[in-house]
Each structure stands twice: as C-alpha cells, then as structure tokens.
Amino acid sequence: MIATDTDQWVRNAADEYAVRQGCYFNERQAARVVSFISQLRHTIGQFAGQQFVPMDWQREDILYPLFGWMAEDGTRRFKVAYIEVPKKNGKSTLCSGISLYLLMGDKEAGAEIYIAAADRQQAGIVYKGASDMVKESPSFQNYVMCIDSQKRISMPSTNSVLRVVSSDAFRQEGLNIHGLIFDELHAQPNRNLYDSLRYGGASRRQSLHVNITTAGYDRHSICYEQHKRAKGVLDGTIQDETYFGFIAAADKDDDWQDPEVWWKANPSMGITINAKAFKSAALEAAESPQKENTFKRYRLNIWTESEVKWLPMDKWDTCPSEEPDLTGCPCFGGLDLSTKRDISALALVFKLERGYATKLFYWISEEEAKKRSRMDHVPYVDWIGQGYIQATPGGGVDHDRIRGDITDLYNTYNIRKIGMDMHNAAQLGSQLVADGFEVQAYSQSYKDYTAACSLLETLVIDEELYHYSCPVLRWMATNTVVDEDPRGNGRIRPTKKKSPEKIDGIVATLMGLGVALVEAEMAPEVFMV
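RE: above sequence
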C-alpha cells in the first residue's frame, strides 16, 4: 500500500534536509506518473504485448519519490537524478517510459526531451523503446508522431519533441531542455557532452536530468563524479535537496558468490533476471579474474579497478610482505625508458627458491610530477617524498641520472642481463653496454609477452610474488588489462589510450621476467632480438 504521509517518504538524510527546506510529498502526482507509464506496453522479450506495469522497486524507489516530491513552490523537487543498477534490471525500458511522460504527461509547452549516450546507437536503445511503446499503445498514437529515420517523436498539440542527441558535444549549446535521459553514463569517453547539456534546462521551471547507468571503472570519469555525489547526498555529507540518488549494488566487502548478495544488488531478480542463469554466470566468473571483474561490474554493480581486470588484486595484497634474502640470487632487469616527459621504470627480478621477487625503481622530472599530481590526481609528489620515485630536476627525465643509478645497483645486486625496448632507449642501451652490462633488446609483440604474462599471473594467484607492497606498482597493476591476438598470445596495455593511469612498472617487471625465463631456458621464444 502506498503511503500518504510525507513523513513516511522521508527515507534518508537528503529527505530530512528537503523537509526542512519546505519540500513535501504529493502522492496524487506520483500516482499520475505511474498511471501514465502503466498504459504503455512492453514490446520485446517475455513481456512483449503486456502492459508496462512498473515493478515494485521501480514504482516505490524510483517513480514515486522522483515525481512525488515537490518543492515549496509546487514544482518538482528533483532537478537531477542518478540511477545506478546492474544490467538486465530493466533500466532502459524504464527510461523509455519516463521520456514519454516528460514529453506528453507534463503538459509542458514546447518541451524538448533529449536522449543522450556515448554514441547514437546506445542512445537509440532508449529511443526505440519509446517509439515502439507508442506504436503498441493505440491511445497514444493520436497525440504523437514517430519519425524513426530521424530518431524523433513529436507532439504537435504542445509543440514538443523527443529526439536523440548527437555525440558531438560542441553542437549542443543553446538547447532548451525540459527532460534529458543520459543512458549508460559510465561509457562516456570524457565529460564534454555531459557538460554541454548540463545547464540546458536552466530556463525551465521543472526540468529533469536523469542519469542512468551501470557501475564503471574509471575513477576520473564524469560518471564516478556523479556516483560520489549521489552517495554523498544520500548519506547527508552533501546537502542538495534537488539531487535524486538511487544505487542498487553489492557492497565492497560482500561475498560476491553469495546468492543473497545477488538478490540484494538486483532488484529485478526473479522477474527480468533468471536466477538459475545468474548462478551459471557466477560459476563461470569464478574461473578467471577477467570474468570475475566483468561479473562484479555488470551483474553486481560494483565499481572495479580496471576495464577488464587482469591481476586479482585480493591475491596481490596477500602476497608475501616480508623481505626475502636476495643474497646470491640471480637478478634480471627490465627497463621501460619513457620519453623525457613521462615516468621511467626499472624492475629487478630475482629468482627465489620459491617464487620471484621484484624491486622497482622509478624516475620522473620534478615539473612533470607536480603537473600530473595536479591534473591527474595521482600522488606522484607524495610518492617522491616517501622514496618510491626519484625526481630529476627540470622538465624532463635525466637519462644520465638513470644510467648512474643503474650502475650503482650493479654494485649491490648480481644483475646478469637487462631487457629493454630499444624504441626509446637505443642510446642508453649502448651506454649501459659500455658500462659492462649485458643488454637484451626486448620486442613489444604479443608473442614475446605471453610467457611472462602467464608467469606473473600465476605468481600473483599462487601468492609467490614478493613485490614489497610498493604502492606505485600496485596502482599500475590495477591499471593493466590484457589483450589477446587470434592465437591466444597476450599483451598488456593501459585501461585506455592516453590514460593518466600508467603501467610502466608492470611492463618493466614483465621484461625482467621474460629475460629470466629465457636465461633459465624455460621459454626460449619469449622475445626476439
């Protein structure tokens, strides 16, 4: 039974704050929205042809509070909504219904409703749902016209229109937005489109901007920014009565293989989601870190640490913390020498009686460290102060300093050979040879990384990697994903091209492991000279 008392709709700190600001709940208005949407019909899947009666959670947790809460002046309380739920819970269908209500049910003259996403194909999913609903609901066809070739629905009686917005952010200035549905916000490659549409409804009395998404992985994205804001509003650390937040997800410390957690994160479980099929997906996810990562993000709505996780970070964190005895251990190096304005990394890899140890050394210019700390929010300056990274004066990395530091390490460790990508390091490689080092050119092909990638993954899973709990290397491990060629050979890359999240330490570690494998004749074709 739907509550009629405003007090019964006060569910969190944000609602308590809203009441103090004069907001109240209008049950009649909330019921009107649900009644409108219930006249629409499903057009695909098991419910095709049936009325779109919102599920309990859609009605009670989204539609009623989103449209029932009113500001003191009688307009809608909420101006922006952030709705985050796992895939297959019916969020796109719900958005189609909301978009049609904003077009037709609000009775707004000249209403402009926009559906936006990372690309027109994604935005077209919500549009097609709305268009098909109109076509399957005869009572609506007398009021609106669907022009699918233009992805446009118009309502002549109020001079209103619903349409898909182009991903070209620079052409969206000046729109007079009454309603905006931003689908799969986590997939936005940058914040340009979001920012260009953000204030498009400033001149409307009760414009509504609805962000709906599944969890992502990029902590520097516009989606994560809104995710944090929603959580802050809900727990009261941010006071904004106009911002609506709803997040259905497993908690970070939950057992992701527990069926109770599956139901907790998926409000449509048993309705749009088959519980047996879900269990099968969970069993498959337990077979590999990559599948586990995908399952957690898309099916449990957990923000993960990379797009397709390669290394299991729970295992990484439980690798041995004590320092092994390196006396007499054969040592092999991997040097990832950057351009002058980036970070360079040397990994010294030691074959132990059980497992391997890797000691990392990093260099970056002082100016670049300050710049990246400020722009990318990566704590380079802190890491320099803690001794994990060496800073060289000026605006570029000092390769002479790197050469000198490596020579000093030769006096401490039994460095037998150093693997290097000669693309950026031909001169330094020649200099190290002159200093008495044996240097091996290391190819960056898929073929030449496969054995080293397999070894590193095994070492982490078996908890046989001594990494000295280096925070820089751990950060780089979370930034690393693996691509495969058609033959199944693997090669690592950052989560995104031109990403501020670096992987140089992992690259250097893999080269060191690759050299060690060849030297031990364990994998004679790890790399080509």
